[in-house]
Amino acid sequence: MYRSVTVSALSDRSRPRTFLVGLFDDDQAVSGDHQGLDHRLGGALAEAIKRPELRRKLGQIHMLYPSGSVDRIIIAGLGERKSANLESLRIAAGQGLRAAHAASCEALAAAFPDIEGKPTLEDRATAIGEGIGMASLDFDEFLGKGRAEPGKSKASATVKVSVDRPMLSGVRRGLTLAASANYARRLAATPPNIASPAFFAAEARKLARKHQFKCSVMDEARLKRLGMGGILGVGKGSRNRPVLICLEYRPAGGRASDPVLLVGKTVTFDTGGYSLKISGAMAGMKYDKCGGMAVLGAMDAIGSLKPKVPVVALLPTVENMIGPDAFRVDDVLTMNNGVTVEVTNTDAEGRLILSDALAYGCRKYKPRAVVDLATLTGGVVVALGDHCAGLFCADDLLRERLVDAAELSGERLWQLPLWPEHRELMKGTHSDLVNSGARRAHPIQGAAFLSFFVGDEAPKRMPELPWAHIDIAGVAALDKARHHLPIGPTGFGVRLLAQLIDNWPSRSGKRSKS
Ligand code: BES
Ligand code: MN
Ligand code: ZN
What we know:
By secondary structure, the chain is an alpha/beta fold. 34% of the residues lie in helices and 19% in strands. It has 2 domains: 4-163, Leucine Aminopeptidase, subunit E, domain 1; 179-502, Zn peptidases (Aminopeptidase), CATH 3.40.630.10. The protein binds ligand BES, manganese (II) ion (MN) and zinc ion. Zinc ion binds at residues 267, 270, 288, 349-350.
């Protein structure tokens, strides 16, 4: 279910009956920022803080029921003051919203304290909006009559949140970002018997109508003319024919300038192909489209935020199946830039579809920078786990921008190396490249393979074009609930990319000074 959230400014005249208050665990007294509020609540916070049982660990919730004009106070723990950050605000606000909803509360006033360090008021308010917004989605769309209360949980409700006026614009921005992340999360959760390549072509067209993007969907005939051997090869085994989806955002009124290119791996289901996955590894492969969903979600946010930089999004969209027509191990594919690839493993399909999109996008749009997101390798899950994505980026400026966006969004990145030596791992004998080399450094092999397709010089040397590859295999979906986020897709990348693009310097730089 999705509870829509609206936000307004808290005024002296408003008389909210539910308050959501963030408190640090180690505060011994009501902090300066909550003095006025505590007065309004008749000293209830000061009373509560004294109680030893009222721990306020990160995400912990307590309900107080004071007498008087206020029905309830939801205390949301922020953990220790010195370790609090923007993510703490997201978690506390999100858990508070969930508690409010469990109490069937439809309106509340939210108050969170300052946190130490750099974050501005706008950034803090944004984080609160993100937490509230992302906590408002549950994946119950496919629950049926097998549940005790069929239909009930599907009912949508609106929660009215009021905040101090200076927080208003930031909270609104956070809610916008969260709505786009939730859009990506819902699409990512849609099962593969529904969410086919054609389904996403229709979704992209809808998104384009909503935001006046240019949209084109390249079908198989078109892909053949363009020589997209990777997308066609991987797509051959499925009745659900592959497509390459393109969305273009141009800022209104701005001088035309080179766009940022976003590319997202959209494998609607990954069986592994003839290099079939063992059954345990196949479950959850509907999430192999999460790179593409992150890009779609980011485009939704971009459509709302209207940044100054043009953006082109490409989603190579295929289903990796087996069958009489499926591609095989030993097949040689000719990619969009003329590079040939011997298929050594049909389960290394993501790089085959991304490469066509990267080569095509670089040639057609002459981007100032390129970022691709993909659930590319199980190896990155082994190496980095599920608290950060793997980042490959040799361009200092683009990497700094991404690290800043990661800091703001809480979608963390950790850099892994990609050196010219790594490209050797991917060289073929009877073809230019193989799609999977020896059993070592799989996440780097994936990145190294992609490096042969970024920009004109790529087949010969490392790309000079600012390019980042982000392997999100570990972070795209949760296998157990984490704070306010339930089991299922996280929307990782939506807020990261949206922050990256929205904070891109407005001056229209050329390629080198991206
Ligand atoms: N979609 C998978 C990667 C993946 C694994 C995503 C686990 C999420 C969770 C990808 O297509 C894949 O199968 N990669 C192979 C590459 C190998 C054959 C070189 C892998 O990581 O095993
Ligand atoms: Mn695979
Ligand atoms: Zn895959």
